[in-house]
Each structure stands twice: as structure tokens, then as C-alpha cells.
Amino acid sequence: MECSSRDRLRPGDDSGFTLVEMIIATMLGVLVLSLAAGILISMFRTQHVTTDFSDATTTGQLISKSVEEGVRNAAPGPEPTDSVAVSDDGILSTVDANGELLRARVAMGTSGGDITWKCMAWYYSPTTKTIVEASSDSMIDDPAGFTWSGSHHLEPNVSQSGVSWTLLGENIEPADGSTLVFNSHDGELDLNFKITNGSTALVLVPNVIMPRKITATGTGPDQCYPLPTATPTPTP
Q1: Number of domains into which the chain is organized
Q2: Per residue of the chain (236 residues), what is the pLDDT tens digit?
Q3: What is the pTM of this model?
Q4: Burial (0-12, 13-18, 19+ Cβ within 10 Å), 79
Q5: Which residue range forms the structural domain that includes residue 218?
Q6: Residue 7 lies in a domain
Q7: Looking at the DSSP assignment, which residues form a beta bridge with residue 182?
Q8: Is residue 57 in a domain?
């Protein structure tokens, strides 16, 4: 059977892509891959920023909740003797070169409706940029700062038997415009701090916390921090 002339290959009729077509296809492929890579990188960065912000928010809420619940349920113990100052709000914040210490005598409810008291403390260490908390059945001494003893593990510079400190958050500093994280005055507490987590710097809204009016009766420690000695009244 003879092939028709149209079925025969004409001279110069080569099959496949030309060099120009290959170059154009390669350039288009590189462009598409570059665009896809850029979109993926942008998505990963957005996810990373979102995760940093979420983690910082969770840490800030944890710290705020711990301090707020403690301070709102704080109350002074029985009126001290005449040898000490009688003005006591149930909370006391002190500052020194090592850091800031906030202590409170906190009411704890029971299933029977009775009140038991605990001594609670929170400490901000500018050296480690952390906030830690502790609770005890007796007065909590000043830990005089903290140092890292391992990954995410802090040790007080001055340890106290029966008192262990729990890390609440790290990468913490006083909020912009503030010099203190804890500032108790006139029976209330100003709480100001910010958290830096990766590319996120989360500034918590300054919070003013006031203790409730809780009766001082109940079981537990009467005193959770040293009260200043009253200045004797001069005899005329």
C-alpha cells in the first residue's frame, strides 16, 4: 500500500520544542515557582507572628490572673501591737537592686464556706526578665533575686525552707513609661508590664487592682510580710 504524499514527512518538518520555546517555558516555570515560594514564606511568617502574639497573650493573662486574684482577695491580719505601724492594706511591694517583691495575705475559700489564709508572693527579676510566684503557710522572705540554673528553671539567690517559686513568664519588662511592674500605694496595686516574644512586643493594659473588703477572721498566718516599725511620738 502506497503512502499518500500528505502522509510523507516533508523535508525540514522536525518534531519537538525549539530552543526559544524551551527558554520561555523555563522562565515561566521559574517565575511561577518564585511566586509560590514567596506566598509560602509570607504564610509561614504570618503564622510565626500569630503564634508569638498568642503565646505572649497567654503568658500575660496568666500573670495578670495570678496577681489579680491574689490582690483582690488580700486583707491585713489582726491589728498589730503599738510597736509597729498599724496602717496595713494586706499587700506590700518593695523594690531593691535585685528586683521587685510583691507580698499579700490572701483569703482562700473552702468547701465549708470558711476562710483560710495563705501568704503569697510575686517577684520580678530584671536580671532574668521573669515573674515568679510562691505561696506558703508562713511569711515569705525576700529571695534577693533569681538566676537561671537550667533551661526554664530559676533558683532564688536566697532560698527558704518550704517555699518554692513557680515561673509565670519570661522576657518581661516594665511597660513603656513605667519604672515598676508592681507598685502598691494607697491600698491598691498598679500592674504594668510588657512581654517580648520573637517579633512581638505585647504591652499589657495598665491594671489598677483594689483588694475587696474581706473580714480578717479565719485560720492561717496573721502576718505575711514585715511591717515597718512605727516612729515613736516625741514627748512634749
Answers
A1: 1
A2: 455 545 554 555 556 678 777 888 788 877 777 777 777 676 666 666 667 778 888 888 899 999 999 999 998 887 655 555 556 778 889 999 999 999 999 998 755 567 889 999 999 999 999 999 999 999 999 999 999 987 778 999 999 998 999 999 999 999 877 789 998 888 889 999 989 887 777 777 678 888 887 776 778 888 888 876 655 444 54
A3: 0.74
A4: exposed
A5: 19-227
A6: no
A7: 191
A8: yes
